[in-house]
Amino acid sequence: AAILHLVHNLIHEEEEEEDNRMQNVGEQGHMALLGHSLAAYISVLDRERLRKLTTRILSDTTLWLCRLFRYENGSAYFHEDDRDGLVKVCRLVINARYEEYASEGYAVLNFKQPVIYQSASGRPGLGQHLCSQLGLPLSSLCTVPCNTIFGSQHQMDVALLDKLIKEDIEAGKLPLLLIANAGTPGAGHTDKLARLKDLCDQYSMWFHVEGVNLATLALGQVTSAIMAANRSDSMTLTPGQWLGLPAVTAVTLYRHEDPALSLAAGLTSSQPVAKLRALPLWLSLQYLGHNGIVQKIKHAATLVSTTEKRFQFLICNFFLPVSLCVQQVEDELSSPVVLFKFSQEMSAASSGGSVDGYCAGEKEVLDAFNRWLGEQLVQLVPTSGVDVVELEDEGTCVRFSPLLTAAVLGTQQDDVEALVEKLSELVPVMSSTMCLRQDFREETHRHSPSLIYMEDPSWPGLGAVRYEPQAEGMDESRRKQELEKINTELLKKLQDLDTDIIFSTGPEFGTEEDCIFVGMVTEDVDVSELVDTIAALGRDIEESGRLLENMTEVVRKGILEAEIQLQKANEEKLMEEGVIRQLPLVGSVLNWFSPVQSSVKGRTFNLAAGSLDSTEVTYSTKAQTGRPSLQDTPSSSSKRLPGQRLFRRSGAGSDSFSETSSIGQAEEITRDGRTTPSSSIHPPISQPAPEEDLQSASNVFPEKISESSEQMHKQEEPEVASEERQPEGQEVENPPLETILL
Question: For 715, which of 563, 607, 652, 661 is 20 to 30 Å away at the CA?
Answer without folding.
Answer: 607
